């Protein structure tokens, strides 16, 4: 965890979309107990989270193939059905590794500065940029 939490989040319990969700509470407990996160900060952060149906639909493309007949028009997928190996293949390949390395080397000084300032490792920043932009 960063030395100083980023963002102004604080709540005694989770409210909003994920209030009372056992999986969220288990996750928060794990982060507090194993990684020393601040519980009030996590409660506040998760109180701002909203379900993004578009994201669920996109990730559902990587789910094991099953017949999709008779689904309602507003079907948005089932959480936890995706396959990490199928999803990963879209991003971890020789071309992306090469382009990521080139990006990292080209922006080394900026990445170091951002890493120090925001306490986010350069490899995480580079990975996110690669997934989100495909280096373009």
Automatic annotation (TrEMBL):
Instruction: Give the originating organism.
Output: Solemya elarraichensis gill symbiont
The name of this protein is Transglycosylase SLT domain-containing protein
Please give the PANTHER family that the UniProt record associates with this protein. MEMBRANE-BOUND LYTIC MUREIN TRANSGLYCOSYLASE B (PTHR30163)
SUPFAM superfamilies noted in UniProt: Lysozyme-like
Molecular function via GO: peptidoglycan lytic transglycosylase activity
Give the source lineage, highest ranks first.
Bacteria, Pseudomonadati, Pseudomonadota, Gammaproteobacteria, sulfur-oxidizing symbionts
Question: Pfam family example for this protein?
Answer: SLT_2
Q: Where is the Transglycosylase SLT domain?
A: 22-136
Instruction: Name the Gene Ontology biological process terms.
Output: peptidoglycan catabolic process
